[in-house]
Design a protein that fits this description.
This protein is α/β, with parallel strands linked by helices and 427 residues long. Helix content is 49%, strand content 6%. It is built from 16 helices and 6 strands. The protein has a 6-stranded mixed sheet with strand order 1-5-6-4-3-2. A hairpin with a 4-residue loop joins strand 5 and strand 6. Helix 7 packs across helix 9 and helix 9 crosses helix 10. The chain is elongated, with a radius of gyration of 54 Å. 23% of the residues are buried. About 15% of the residues have low confidence.
């Protein structure tokens, strides 16, 4: 976890995170502003198929863009109201918006001599209060933001002249809520940690050439305008607009409106940058908390999947072992019983012959009786002469035989084991 966090921090702090060969990302890569006031709008382009009017807008559209024009007419007045709430002033006159579908219609709606760049999908003519849009861009996720950005340029162009570049871009981004993006935060984080924050006097007319520096310029302009608006309110912003409209230099109008100098306000803003965009807020922000929780959830899920895979492997091994044992047992049963001592398997069991008197309980050994071999020596003669049988060769008289007690002793006349009646004796 610590390694992942360190890697993310190094990635954010690296100056080469964003490709140096690419231009600005987001809407800054798709919008353009033409400040040449010498362009003279000619008659309505022939490709225009209709128009829609609202209180402060007129929307010219082609036949293909009729649906987009109707949807835009329902929302555009509310967008303009938010501009007046921030700037403290509303720009005069009616703003014209031209809508076409596709590159061919988009270029056909442009002013003569003001052809849009090949990468742009939106173009603003602040001096003529005209905005040119590709209707397809409005259905994109950044389409509404692009429209508001162009509208901000028209608003500032109509309210006053000679705005510093950083102020124009800062106001536009605050009106479109671009300053809340992750790209802006990461750009300011790199600027603060690498001490690459620009002075605003260097961003009045010129803009950096390196794309990574361009992102920093956009981000710090948006952050500084938000700082001024939050500190002084929309009333002071309105006074600044009035002063610049009256022809005062921007810094002079700034001092009258905010009762301080641009340099002092910039220093005050810079002192709080480390607390807002340095390492401390990154380690204590709720965004980091959610990021950490997300990483932990992913790690826990991956660990659970590894444990599950290991358990499945273990169960598969156990099943294979049981199958092998069953096969061995089946083979052993087919081959015959196995001896206990591990010698060669025995042959199949044969039936044991039944011997005479096998079911009669054996008599207890008599110490005075001859051993088994001696008794067997006279067995043939005894069988022929009837010896060994007092009753004769026909066999013993089983009825006269005294039954043997369970203890191995013969019962005596008149005596019986406890609990049993005496057995009568025949004479």
């Amino acid at each position: 976890m610590l390694r992942l966090f360190a890697f993310l921090m190094m990635l954010l702090a690296s100056p080469g995170v964003f490709a140096q060969d690419e231009g600005p990302r987001g809407i800054h890569a798709t919008e353009a502003v033409v400040t040449d006031a010498a362009l003279v709008p000619h008659a309505r382009p022939a490709i225009v198929a209709g128009e829609l009017k609202t209180q402060r807008f007129v929307i010219l559209h082609t036949a293909k863009a009729a649906g987009a024009a109707r949807a835009l007419a329902e929302q555009i007045e509310g967008v303009r109201d938010t501009f007046g709430a921030m700037l403290g002033r509303d720009w005069p006159g009616t703003t014209e918006i031209r809508l076409g579908v596709g590159r061919q219609e988009f270029e056909a709606l442009a002013l003569p001599g003001g052809k849009p760049p090949g990468w742009a999908v939106a173009l603003a003519y602040p001096g003529h209060q005209i905005i040119l849009l590709d209707a397809l861009s409005l259905s994109d996720t950044e389409g509404p933001t692009t429209l508001r950005h162009e509208l901000a340029h028209v608003a500032l162009g109509q309210l006053a002249k000679d705005w510093p570049r950083w102020f124009q871009e800062g106001v536009a981004q605050n009106l479109t809520d671009e300053r809340y993006s992750v790209a802006h935060y990461s750009a300011l984080f790199r600027a603060v940690t690498q001490e690459r924050v620009f002075h605003f006097e260097d961003l009045s007319d010129e803009w950096p050439d390196v794309p990574a520096d361009v992102e920093i310029a956009y981000a710090q302009s948006a952050a500084f305008v938000a700082f001024l608006t939050g500190k002084h309110g929309s009333h002071a912003m309105g006074l600044l607009v009035d002063g610049v409209r009256a022809g005062e230099p921007f810094e002079q109008a700034f001092g009258k409106a905010f009762r301080t100098s641009l340099l002092l306000e910039e220093q005050d803003w810079r002192e709080g940058l480390a607390a807002r965009y340095g390492w401390l807020p990154l380690t204590t922000s709720s965004a980091l908390l959610w990021l950490t929780a997300s990483v932990l959830c992913v790690a826990a899920f991956a660990r659970r999947m590894r444990q599950k895979a290991a358990r499945m492997t273990e169960l598969a091994a156990e099943d294979a072992a049981e199958d092998a044992a069953l096969r061995l047992l089946a083979a052993a049963r087919a081959a015959g019983p196995l001896p206990v001592d591990g010698s060669e398997p025995l042959s199949p069991a044969l039936p044991w012959p039944e011997w005479p008197g096998a079911t009669t309980p054996a008599a207890p050994p008599n110490p005075s009786a001859p051993s088994q071999p001696e008794a067997l020596e006279g067995a043939p003669e005894a069988l022929e002469s009837g010896a060994g049988h007092p009753e004769g060769p026909d066999g013993p008289d089983m009825e006269d035989e005294e039954p043997e007690a369970s203890s191995g002793e013969y019962e005596l006349d008149g005596e019986a084991p406890s609990g049993r009646p005496p057995k009568p004796t025949l004479h």
